[in-house]
User: What shape does this take?
Amino acid sequence: MNVLNSRFNMSAARCARIIVLLAGGLLWAAAMTWARSGAGPQIPNIFAPQSTPAREIYVVSMFVTEICVGIFVVVFGLLAYSVVKFRQRAGDDHREPPQVYGSKQLELAWTVIPVLIVVVLFLSTARVLHEIQDAPPPARAVQVTVVGHQFWWEFRYPQFGFVTANELHVPVSDPKNPTPTYLTLLSADVNHSFWVPRLAGKTDLIPNRANHMWIEPLETGLYLGQCAQYCGTQHAKMLLRVYVDTPAQFDRWVQKQKLPAWRDASVTDGRRVFTTNACVNCHTVTGTGARGRFGPDLTHLMSRDTLASGAAPNNPGYLRLWVQNPDAIKPGALMPAMNLSDEDLDRVTAYLLTLR
Assistant: This one.
């Protein structure tokens, strides 16, 4: 019996040490995350919100975290106290200690306190959900329709009459004159999820259903996001790039996007190759016969910093490779290889480089 008690006590001591190590590791990870919370806009960091909805979510998340940490400290403290206080000592007679049953005070405490905690958490969360989901759009709000495709993003600006892809541009919002951006979320195929951590929470894009969300960026810059719902082979490379511009920058960008495609006489052969191949079945280039909707609008392709929804930088080398063999950049992409000759590949690449 003494041997069994000794082994039990040794196991309890080991468990206590493991718990202490895990607690230390969690605290260290939290401290490191907190330390990085002021990092630049290239990091999709939920601890550095720069939009009204994201800040609301951050505040309630920190409140929930503080309550959970408090519960952990109390429970772990009682456990550590019990392990130390009632450990086996030399000279113990190994008799069972007095047993106490039916403490109404304890029963009442550990029933009422958790219920109160749950009620407080529920009310806090419900308040934030109401403030975010039921916020009416002001007159100055920018309206954008987001359509998720396998595996890229389509952005329609109905107020301005143009369509673009993969890189969303919105104006920064002045608290004195709010200019939020309201997004209508649609899907062309399977479930997707729009998530830019520093701007707002996740919202799904579901076939045959329109969901809605809004962002109100308070600082200019680039904000990165991700499709947060597994949507197929290249889900991990269905990236989001949100450019928050000053009002003047946004107005200039809008005016450029409303223009038809640039016509350059030096790339007439490339335009002919583009318009006489299957490219026109999937892509749109305003001012030409290309009216496809299965792929991104290419009217101002070279105004974007990336290709294939953020999978590669938008430069001549990667652009040529993308047309030649999309699987080399994004395996599983639905864009087919065009099987053009080297000469035609050079011509169509030269043409695409003029679409600014």
